Amino acid sequence: MDFRAELDSPLFTHFISHYSHPTGPDLLGRTEPFFEWQESRRQAGLWPYSRSLESAPTPECGVRSETGTARQGLNFGSQDYLSLSTHPAVMEAAQRAIQDYGLHSAGSAMLGGNTTPALMLEKALAEHLQMPHVALFSTGWGAGFGVIVGLVRPDDHVVLDALSHACLQQGAAAATPNVSRVPHLNNRAMKRKLQEIRARDTRNGVLVVTEGLFSMDSDVPRLEELQAICHEFGATLLVDVAHDLGALGPQGTGSLGLQEMLGKVDLVMGAFSKTFATNGGFVATRSPSVRQFIRIMGGPHIFSNALLPMQAAVVLESLRIVRSEEGAALRAKAQENSLALRAAFQARGVKCLGEPSNVVPVQVGDAKVARLAAKKLFERDIFANLVEYPAVRLRESRFRMQVMSAHTLEQVQRAAAGVCDAMDEARAEVEVRPSATRAARHDGRAQAEL
Ligand SMILES: Cc1ncc(COP(=O)(O)O)c(C=O)c1O
Fold first, then answer.
1. Aminotransferase class I/classII large domain: from which residue to which, for each copy (predicted)?
2. Which of 8, 149, 260, 303 is 20 to 30 A off residue 228, Cα-Cα?
3. Does ligand 1 have an atom closer than 6 angstroms to the CB of 279?
């Protein structure tokens, strides 16, 4: 299909944000313009989202598009960083838990839904993080939203790194109108913002929010300095370690371990869904009262069914592996894959953002090129997620490739070659000069401000 005649149509020029604030009295009917736009992308093969896997998230697997096209190929789009979701010991732990506890948690953790594996997991995580009190949530999203909504009241302030995850942004917006964003990873801007808040308000709380590893950019904050700035201004620091815990650092302690900050950050939250082979999340604190407050006052813990016993058992076994020699070897293999993937892109003159981690963000820039390239990549039987505005800044579309320990170097080379070829072909079709797209500016402006 030749798209040249369509390049200036909404198929290529519109983003989700064009449709995200419909107006008018008909709540249901006003969803239709978005659906029509999305459907036109789907039918043109330009909607690379909501695909389904037809097997476990292994390096080679079957993938079906939302319109039903099935392909078999190379998977660089799953968040099973240490490939633990198919690890025999983890699968056995899941089966044992199903036999011992059944399938269901059968209640909120407050009302009978807590289980023995969940209690064991709280203890194991507390040791791993050197934070004695842990509250579990049935999703990482709920942990991020719940910790903010649990602690912050309308007179308080939340200051977020501008690229913080949606669960943190939405938690902040639900908790208080006093929400600020500072440029990504900019500790000086954070200090200025806290100074400014404290100059007019010493009576209320300030929560500062960042991540251990930003998953769209693969970059990391300087945590010791940030924690010190927070304490200077009587603010509390929350770090979301969803992407780095287990996957990076000594014994899988993530950025906290790498920066010798274990047990030294005010609040830590995370998700099990990247490295620990199942869904779920947690908040860790040094204070028993903070733990109880977040559980009862942060909606998702009390008003949502607890983590399944099978999920808790899976995380527990995954954590045992993460901390073992085997875990170190799996991390080393993932790191080898990540470095090889970056090197393969560099050899073709394609820029990857950030630092080596399981996430390899491949800069595309121009949205038209990115949409076409994503289509071509799928047709080449390579699966990598396209990330577009507003999930990233405008003109900074990218492929977010995710390496797993189970990938081979041959698969890594094949994937990089496929992505580069798809991008080259797409660029030629869109007739955008490579320099204009590859050098898309990375200026740290908040996506929310655009
Ligand atoms: C930084 C971050 N925090 C929280 C979450 C939410 O975790 P989950 O998808 O496990 O609910 C995610 C996952 O998308 C994430 O990337």
1. 73-417
2. 149
3. yes
Per-residue pLDDT tens over the stretch 190-220: 999 999 999 999 999 999 999 999 999 999 9
- Judgement on whether residues 359 and 288 belong to the same structural domain of the protein: no
Helix H segments across 367-408?
A: 367-379
For 15-53, write each residue's pLDDT tens digit: 999 999 999 999 999 999 999 999 999 999 999 999 999
Q: Which residues in 179-213 are b (16+ Cβ under 10 Å) and which e?
A: bbbbbbbebebbbebbeebeeeeeeebbbbbbbbb
Distance, CA 143 to ligand 1 centroid (Å)? 9
268 lines ligand 1 (CB under 6 A): no
- Which residue range forms the structural domain that includes residue 283? 88-323
Please tell me the distance between residue 38's alpha carbon and the centre of ligand 1 in angstroms.
24
Q: Given phi > 0 = left and psi -120 to 50 = alpha, else beta, which region is 47?
A: beta
Residues 317 and 339 both lie in one domain? no
Distance in angstroms (rounded) separating the CA atoms of residues 353 and 348: 15
Q: Is 271 in the pocket of ligand 1 (CB under 6 A)?
A: yes
Q: Whose CA is nearest to atom 10 of ligand 1?
A: 140
